[in-house]
Amino acid sequence: MNEEKIIIYGAGKRGNDYYKFLKSKNLDNYVAAFCDKRANEIKEKFGKPVILYEDALKLNLPFLIGVGIEFVDELKKLFAETGVTRYYEYIADWASKYLPIGKSAINREYCAFCHIDDMDEYFKASDNVGALSVYWGDTFFYRMFSRLDKKNIVELACGRGRHVPKYISMAEHVTLVDILEKNIDICKERFKDYNNIDYYKNNGYDLQELPDNTYTALFTYDAMVHFELLDIAKYLMETYRILINGGMALFHHSNYHADYKVSFVGSPGGRNYMSKDIFAYLAYRAGFEIVEQRVFDLSWSNQNLDCLTLVRKNI
Predict the structure, then answer these.
(1) How many domains does the chain have?
(2) DSSP code at position 271
(3) Of the chain's two ends, which shows fewer C-beta atoms within 10 Å, N or C?
């Protein structure tokens, strides 16, 4: 049916990623076309026509905004000027009509999907000395990390293991957790000579395979900034469950709270909706004592978009 189809506005990276994600969910047949200013040059993407805006208007179909955040306001202004009222700013708003898993789960799965491919250069760059110095130099990151009991430590969202060489000598046992099988496989190969590391591909919102009251510490860097608020709430409860009494956890999370509708996409640096105070509330409700919080900027930002929170489990 015509009203079920949609036009992705944007035939660049975000529009492409949206289409590939929808295809992975068998929703690609709902995409009627791409709309892009470069339509005369591109003409076709993934077997779908790329059309100009004036031609897209004739189809009378809703748009899914698939452009970078720096262009969204300009596009919404164009929609207003041309009488377009049917559009979706976020992919989960449209996909939730056809997927029975809810918006948070869609956003989680889309975030994971975007980290499967085309991430080699990012991981390579993030593994160099300069990038790691933010966490392991003479910084508040390392000062707060130093307060953890590293005897039996969990690294949540470990990626490809860039932090492991920095703390493995301090730990008796390490458990690496990630939502992506690819990352776990790379870590297994990278650290194959170590016999004190366990690996766990989880589902992106709990730690159900890890036992209660067992681990001395948990930490996560540069990943939870992208997580859905509801998933963070679950992770906090799970972290409380698996830590020993007195165990501590260190979370690097988002402090972006300008728009409650944002997800991994649609915000600066992919920061999801969260704040220092909201995180403290969730951690406190999960049972934790808030030991310390630090709001900060990374080198690309002057907006205090990040926060580091240290918590302790006390029974």
Answers:
(1) 2
(2) P
(3) N
Q: Are 201 and 181 in contact (CB under 8 A)?
A: yes
Q: Which pTM was predicted?
A: 0.89
Does residue 106 fall inside a structural domain?
no
β-strands 152-156, 215-220: how paired?
A: parallel
Is residue 105 in some structural domain? no
CATH number, domain containing residue 203:
3.40.50.150
Considering the domain boundaries, does residue 110 fall inside one? no
Same domain, 137 and 88: no
Q: How far apart are CA 218 and CA 279, in angstroms?
A: 16
Give the pLDDT of the chain (315 residues) as one tens digit per residue. 345 799 999 999 999 999 999 999 999 999 999 999 999 999 999 999 999 999 999 999 999 999 988 899 999 999 999 999 999 999 999 999 999 888 999 999 998 888 876 677 777 767 777 788 889 989 999 999 999 999 999 999 999 999 999 999 999 999 999 999 999 999 999 999 999 999 999 999 999 999 999 999 999 999 999 999 999 999 999 999 999 999 999 999 999 999 898 888 878 888 999 999 999 999 999 999 999 999 998 756 668 999 999 999 987
CATH number at residue 47: 3.40.50.20
